[in-house]
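assembly run, all chains below
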Amino acid sequence: MRSRKRGIGEVVAWAVIAIAVVVLLFPFLWMAITSVKTNRELYDLTAAPLLIRQGVTLEHFELLLHRTAFLTWLGNSFLVSLSTTIVTLLTSVPGAYALVRMRFPGQETLGLAVFLAYLVPPSLLFVPLAQVVAAFGMMDTLWSLIVTYPTFSVPFSTWLLTGYLKGIPKELEESAMVDGASRLRALLTVVLPVAAPGVVTVALFAFTLSWGHMIYALAFVSRSSWKVLPVGLLTELVRGDVFYWGALMAGALASAVPVVALYSLFTRYFVAGLTAGATKF
Amino acid sequence: MGRSGAPGSVPAVEARNIAVRWWWRERPKGEWRLALAMVCPLVGILLGLMAYPLVSALYMSVTDKTIGSRGGYVGLSNFLQLAEDSIFRQTVGNAVVYTVVAVTIKTIVGMGLAVALARVGERGGTVRALILLPWVIPISITALAWWWMFDPMFSVINRGLRALGLAASGIPWLGDPFWARVAVILVNVWRGLPFFATVFLAGLLSIPRELYEAAETDGAGPLESFVRITLPLLRPVLSLVILYSVVMTVADFEIIYILTRGGPVNRTHLFATYAFQVGLEGTLIGKGAAIALFIFPVLAGASYFTLRIIRRGEEYA
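ok done. output:
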């Protein structure tokens, strides 16, 4: 009786999981199918949508490469995301360390400010930030994004790192400093190697968040040659009433590849960052 | 080690080490200058790119500034105009419906999925990694796929429903006010569900199994253990996730902008998309700033409650 009950519970659990997997992953499957299907079959309502019967085609990827600025957007996205990641690390690592391990005036206030900033969504700031960006003459440049993207990556990263650093025993760097190492040296040679997983997590999040961010990119940049991927795809693959769905899905798929690659290499870090970001205070 | 060495020497070394460590910890801290230098970039970003814009948004919201003109002080006129603005009123209603419905579904379904994943244990490892994809891959990319899935003519969802003998005439996903709301909420749930499920799962796995075993010996059924053990122990995590999600959901931009641009007849506008339309596309910066500021009370409320939970339950310190 008991084992049968257990068996039923297990079956129900797997059924729930199966439905969830299908629903959660279907858009990716549909994206992939669309990107390699010929237009003739794509827009044939009598064809079975999930099958590819008339052969696989690369025409959508070719359209993307030859008739749009896709490669430029890709380059811009990489440049902006990598720059943001570097700025984020250079800001949040020393900041979080000082917050956790050192004493300075205004420390408590800063800790609270980081937490509050972490909750501020970009959509609250884009109107005034547009003025800041314009005042510095950065409208329609990639600088506008490199300067503003840290507003969402830095508070989160500092937040995550303070939690992480609190878990590292103080004695580690104290014994290094007793042996004569300076504070900065102890941070670089003793603390950072131990904190590496936290730093990697932060770098991954900064990169991924920047890669997909849209509102600032839409608000501050309008020239095609300075667009980043999500904005380029959304604004330049729909011309009037003509939707290039095949090419749009090919572009979406290609844009997702770097993130999926990072995710498959560092799954553990993504999951750790996700749960810590939501619950470790 | 050292027991057989010179008697007394090891405790002496130990005592010296303890004394030295104590001194290091309690010594006069002359390091505050270095500390300030280290937090300098952080403070710069928080003040220059977050606090200042927020204050200037407050200032702009009481001016009639437009792109290209400085504008003058107009008092609360922007806010009074908004109170009269039927699109804005619609937006407030939309934001409430969108946020309440989406967060409720994410919480309930996310909990169900987490319980199912906890049940199958380690055998669900690959699944756990796979279901995170909608959350890992930016919504600005995946919403494009949903846009195509909701296409009036070629919607794959409608074709699927038709094949199953349901909704033969097709659902007007983005063309009808009701269905457009369903569509944007559906995409928000799709995006957020993996996050909820994963955090809840981590919470579930941290509950000691002995509690359930004890409850079972006492004759409690699965439902009773869930209500009596799981829910109370998960309460802090649940509240934190819900509060965080409320802020992010009410401030949503990408899903709406990509799928509906706020339409049809403004039934899906949220503060961010309406502020974008008025403030940047429509160049009325003062009014746009005022609209976006309506996200702030939600943010303030959520921050207050989050801090209260954190300070009450030091288990999350």
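The two ends of chain A are 44 Å apart (CA to CA).

Chain A has a mean pLDDT of 90.

not gonna interpret more than that til we talk
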